[in-house]
Structure formats: structure tokens, C-alpha cells
Amino acid sequence: MNSAYYVAMLVVAIIVTLLYSLFPIYNKINPTLGGLPIFYWYQILLLAVTTVLSAVVVHFVKEEGER
Known about the structure:
Blueprint: H1 3-20, H2 23-26, E1 32-33, E2 36-37, H3 38-66
Antiparallel strand pairs: 1-2
Helix pairs in contact: 1-3
């Protein structure tokens, strides 16, 4: 792995950490969606966002390494 991978993953980690640091804003019981508080939906959404961002970084760094 090259240094671009590590830099990109650090940026992703910083973005996700900042999103998770918004805990006091989304730590609410109401509103609910499907019977679950918004807190749980935000956590599920961030899990998906983290996965997608990490996959994008791996994809682009892998393509760059194959050239």
C-alpha cells in the first residue's frame, strides 16, 4: 500500500469521527422511525457511510496502483 491510501483513510476516519461527535444532537428518543429512535437510525446510517467511504478509497488506490 502506498502513502495515498493511508492519507485517504485518515481523512475518512476524521470525517467519520466528526460525524460521530455530533452525538448530543442526534441522541433523542423522539422522533422514531419504524419504532426505533433516531439515535439508532443515525448509527446505522453512519455505519453505511463509513463502509462506502472506505470502499471508495480502496477502489481508487487499487486502481492507481495497477497503472
